[in-house]
Amino acid sequence: VTKVEDTGLFGINIHRANANLVSQLVDRYSAGCQVLNNPKDFEYLITRCKAPNLKDFTYTLLKEWN
Q1: How many helices (H) and strands (E) does the chain have?
Q2: How far apart are CA 51 and CA 66, in angstroms?
Q3: Per-residue pLDDT in tens (0 to 9) along the chain, 66 residues
Q4: Whole-structure pTM value
């Protein structure tokens, strides 16, 4: 198996789907980005990331399960 590494600027971000509503379908809101469907969850994340004493943080994406 040959590994291929792509480097560059891709504009892949983490953002919310809608500023006011919980979105049931992310569809048009993302093309490779991590999208939070609940604006309150996004606000919580951003608040935590901007904590005054926080220099770095890690982010782990887990596959959703039921």
Answers
A1: 1, 2
A2: 32
A3: 889 888 888 778 899 989 999 988 877 667 778 889 899 999 999 999 899 998 888 888 777 766
A4: 0.69
